[in-house]
Amino acid sequence: MDDAKTIAARLEGKRFGVVGVGNALKGDDGAGPALAAMLAARGASFPLVDASEVPENYGGWVEKQKLDAVVFVDAVEFGGAPGEWRLIPFEDLMHSASSTHRLSLHFLIRYLKEKWRGEALLIGVQPLSLKLGEGLSAEVDEGVTEIAACLMRAAGA
């Protein structure tokens, strides 16, 4: 996947953290929180947080961690196959891609651009279902596993 190479290149040599975004009670919308839990279980050497549905509450966290880059991971409707993931330009989030958290992510990124000099990346995972009470689909679980491996490699693990 070309995005995996791009992510690795953009994070190389940088202190980065990961913010999982989403609602774990709404099927594949829980991709971000699932990633945060998976990375914690694998002993990730970089800071990470499960921001759930309130990523805007973590702008200060990014600054306090003294990060050079932050990676947000969220379920994003971009017309791909379920479980497919890609880098989503934040500008596209407000115009063409759809996230259940797009306004709060948009405002958080605006805040960060004003207060912080680091780089923010958004990895979007195409959901299959956002139904209340369902867990992750097998496709999104596989995509989350690939993202975790990509981020662990970027950290040199």
How is the secondary structure organized here?
Blueprint: H1 2-11, E1 16-21, H2 31-41, E2 48-52, H3 59-64, E3 69-75, E4 85-87, H4 90-95, H5 102-115, E5 119-125, H6 138-154
Parallel strand pairs: 1-2, 1-3, 3-5
Antiparallel strand pairs: 4-5
Helix pairs in contact: 1-6, 2-6
Describe this structure in words.
- The relative contact order is 0.26.
- The chain has a five-stranded mixed sheet, with helices on one face.
- It is of the alpha/beta class and 157 residues long.
- The chain is built from six helices and five strands.
Note the overall shape.
globular
Total tally of structural domains: 1
Order of strands across the widest beta sheet? 2-1-3-5-4
CATH class wording: Alpha Beta
Rg computed from alpha carbons, rounded to a whole number of angstroms = 14 Å
Could you name the CATH homologous superfamily?
HybD-like
Element pattern in H and E: HEHEHEEHHEH
**Stretches where pLDDT falls below 50 for ≥5 residues?**
none
What is the CATH topology descriptor? Answer: Rossmann fold
Strand content: 15-25%
> Largest sheet, if any?
5 strands, mixed
Average pLDDT: 88
Calculate the terminal CA-CA distance, rounded to whole Å: 19 Å
Enumerate how many helices there are, as a single number: 6
Helix content: 40-55%
Number of strands: 5
CATH arch. level architecture: 3-Layer(aba) Sandwich
The helix/strand class is alpha/beta
